[in-house]
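Re: [help] complex structure
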Amino acid sequence: MPHEVTMPQLGMAQDAGKIVSWLKAPGDKVARGDALFEVETDKATMEVEAQASGYLTHVTAAEGEDVPVGKTIARISESAEVDAPPAALRAQADNADALPEGKQISMPQLGMAQDSGVLVGWLVDLGAQVGADESLFEVETDKATMEVPAGASGYLAATLAQPGDEVPVGQAVAVISTEKPERPVARGVAEKAPAPKVTPAPAPEPEATPDPAPRPGPATPALAPQASDRILASPRLRRVAMEKGLDLARLVQAGHPQPYHMRDLEILENLPAARPETQTGTAVRAMRLQAACAQDGFGAFATWAADAKGLSDADALLAGLAGACLGRTATVAVDRFGNRRAYDVPTGRSLSAVTASDAAPDLLLRDLRMSALTGVCMGAEDVPVLTLLKKGDGLSLILECTSAGIAPDQAIALLSEFAGRMHDPLRHLL
Amino acid sequence: MREITLSQAVNEAIAEEMRRDPTVFLMGEDVAEAGTPFKVLSGLVEEFGTARVIDTPISEPGFMGMAVGAAMTGARPIVDLMFGDFIFLIMDQLCNQAAKTHYMSGGKLTVPLVLRTNLGATRRSAAQHSQSLQAIVAHIPGLKVAMPSSAYEAKGLMKTAIRDNNPVVIFEDKLMYQDKAPVQEEEYLIPFGVANVKREGRDITLIGTSSMVQVAEKAAEILAAEGISAEVIDPRTIVPLDEATLVESVKKTSRAIVIDEGHQSYGVTAEIASRLNEKAFYHLDAPVLRMGAMDVPVPFSPALEDLTVPTPEGVAANARRLCAGEMIHAA
Amino acid sequence: MAKAKSNTEDYLRMYTQMVRIRTFEDNANQLYLSAKMPGLTHMYSGEEAVAVGICEALTDDDRITSTHRGHGHCVAKGADFKQMFCELLGKAEGYCRGKGGSMHIADQSHGNLGANAIVGGSMGIATGSALRAKLQGSDDVTVCFFGDGATAQGLMYEVMNMAALWKLPVIYACENNGYSEYTKTEEIAAGSITARAEAFGIEAHQVDGQDVLAVNDLTRKLVARARKGEGPFFMELMTYRYHGHHVGDINREYYRSKAEEKDWRDNRDPIIRFRAHLVSEGIASEDELDALNAQIEKDAAEAVAYALEAAYPDASEVDMHVYAA
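Output below.
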């Protein structure tokens, strides 16, 4: 599957980077970690490494060009040939081509300071006839919910947003055709996968590496360790580290992204004194599995659970959802900003039976949804660590563990099930 | 317990003190029969007469200066300044005269007066009737500054202010006059310089003044639903400031946001943030953030005015960033 | 205090007070010029009959507010040389414990509400003191001293309006010395000064400020009426300052001539005039008055010596008196 190469965010306030030069030519074979291109920001010029192995294709940004952060500038494909565009892009293109002809109806401006509206629902069936003054759909803004008239007579030939979608003011939400459409189109604002994509790392790829030697490339877009510069750490962490006789430089050496806060103390404390040579005939393998959820259903679920069931401890719910994926009685700890709370999760689905615990955890949930991090590669710890990250409207889930801590098939099951539950927690109860 | 409005609380406090101490009197524009445009003082003239509830001409420097002279010679005037913005009119009398007299006289003269005025935007009153100028007053040594956050504070702080032997400026939020809060029937005073921990928390300290206490409390509720535990503190008086309570809280939580409706730059928020930086530096896990009104004259248009003041959502968003260890303003 | 005494005592006291002011200012001037006194100072010399004529019509319960040119008011309202010189030199025994200095000097115990370094800044205070007297049923009167320059401040019109509306026992005493800092008064003030007060229905008088008896006589009458609730009143006292605006204002011929200054000194000096009156009326002999002068000079010299040796305030006093207990 092709990997998209995007302009990385290299500074905190950077919104674009200039491509100084490509270090690989289209069609070149590329290995993960190879320097791929050179970028100049307001701060410095740096080389960007390939995040996947394959062949460089579809280069769309030329040298000297300023490219917004996050924009795709090339792909790393499985073959050097310019292959077909990825399925998602293809679908989008197909849909665009297939859009019926007619008058496009846009999201109206309904409030003074409103820049988008949430589509509550369609009031006309797809393909059905509609009059200009008839209500076509219902919109919710920060102020109120209101029905929006069609504004044109004809047939509802396409709906370009689904209930729940937030649509920027002025963006097309429907097409009204004069002729009855042969193939009416229904689409969401974003191309959403109907079910969460779970992408366990393929075993032979370096995705699941032996317990990490320091990685040359930062796993996250946070500041890369800068060899000569001072270490960026909070005053409190500095003080505590000094009191405990810990050296923050070891976090840098371990490739842990700066700046450091109290939440990083535990990692610092757990760095082995001297890292032994890895891969010396041991059977224990470190694993890193990654999953994506198109939506984060947990927030709404927690609100519902609190209101309807009186379960007001959101962390207990989170621990319960995760613990249930292990298929056995377990202690699950939720770690957020250095604060850790553990819960005993019994077998079964009863979230009300989850209780606070002092026991050592069998699974650690590291909740980084509120952070700017988009990825982690911390290395496996004694217990499996499941990291939750925000990704768009959904989630990115990373499980880091060792084969000694959890069997590979169990790890895959754990992450897959948990991703499903986070996507739609009500599934858990069904 | 009974609930009364902030307006009633102020009225009760003044009435009680006027009954207790015959040297207390009230002066300002339309304070008697009109009871001020906000009707805060309605009924006082009926009880105390026009000799002690004095309608003045529209001469802010004049009646402010007269209050200073009356205070220096044995009376306890309460000056009503219709809008906080008019402080600029009385700056000489307030800051050069009232604030400095005790010091310049080597402690021999005192100026026990209360200046009650207001703050707060979003009343669609535009740039000259919407400012929150407490920082300007708090900058001047010799003045005390109280910022009640509810009817309860408004009453207790007002009574303390009237009994204080110094010039005290009380800023009431003009949007809170009709807000109700439980206020006991029995007499009570709220001491100056004692902060109120409105809500305990462990992850971040939200320090708010006046109506920003409510903003902080709402933000804390939003954050609680996300698993972030916020402590909310109301300093109640910014001069004197209960630094110890604020510093202790931040030592516990290691993060703080200071919220005040004055302009962001050179403001109350900057002062408190700076003190936390000085006194709690080695306990900070994130920079202390200031959240004030935008550095623009307050615009009239509701679409614009609402953008200029801190909101619970904005506070919660910043709290999230701090708790997530995001590096702020440090590209 | 004034009423119970014979004219002779009153006259000699007025003479003494005027000489004390002149002597105080001469010493202060020397202290300043010899760099023993910090800051800046404004001499009252030449205007003595105004402060003395007015303050001798007041009791200790009556209040005054003073100006940046306030040494004369301070002496006239009963202050002591030692504590005054200590204050000028920033010493702990000064009336304001060295925190006020020349521009804020006041002996508060005799009803002096302070000298004010903001031109016109005390008009509200004086009027407020009178408001307090009326509210509390006290019969004390407050005199507000200010210069012709202060008539250009808006505050004056605001408080005169309220004083007139509420019939407050306040007397506005405008010391018109002909100059608003470095500018002739006629260049900064349109129309008549007294007409400003009359516009509010305030009874206004113009009086020769170099004639201490005329000043005293008018003030007594107005104070008595003010005590009965007939105030407020306004007095314009025509006077002259011998020195510049402040002690360093030496080269001032660009705004007034030496001939003019000489004329006032030689022909209209309030002390010379009153001394001649005392001698011609047989109230005191030249010798007696010389002896009086010598005693005052001796007192001043001793007070200066004392103040020069006196202790500065302890550093711990720097943040004392910011707030009252």
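Chain C touches chain B through 46 residues (CB under 8 Å).
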